[in-house]
Write a structure and sequence with these properties.
single chain, about 130 residues, alpha+beta, three-stranded antiparallel β-sheet, about 40% helix, elongated
Length: about 130
């Protein structure tokens, strides 16, 4: 099986809001606060750049299926072996994969587009049929 990737469909508006707040803070520091040191005034510039980049580059890969293992991507990634799949619980928030050997694995519906969610659902149905 080839690698199948599902991308995040939602950008976090909190990053954009934080960037705007840091811009306001930086402007206020330049015009109204002359007592602080110079490095304190320039603190907001790298933070604004960070939050703007985080907003625009947020559409990264969130789930990946490779060699019958589904993984989350990121700093605290988790993985689930689909061969050990016991059952699938579905609700309005997403899918929960349950196994006897592993911790439960949750797939959030709100992070995926409708097409990606349906494709992931069809892939998981094949593993669900194998275990029944």
């Amino acid at each position: 099986m080839s690698v199948i990737e599902f991308k995040n469909s939602k950008k976090k508006k909190a990053n954009l809001i934080a960037a705007v707040l840091w811009i306001i803070y930086s402007i206020a520091m330049f015009y109204y606060d002359s007592k602080n040191s110079i490095w304190y005034k320039y603190l907001g510039i790298p933070l604004v750049i960070f939050y703007v980049l985080a907003y625009f580059l947020d559409k990264g890969i969130i789930y990946q299926i490779d060699n019958n293992i589904i993984k989350t991507k990121g700093l605290f990634s988790k993985s689930f072996d689909l061969n050990d799949l016991k059952r699938i619980n579905r609700n309005q928030h997403g899918i929960r994969l349950i196994s006897d050997q592993q911790n439960d694995f949750r797939i959030e519906k709100s992070f995926l587009t409708i097409e990606d969610y349906n494709a992931l659902e069809s892939i998981l149905k094949t593993y669900e049929k194998v275990t029944e």
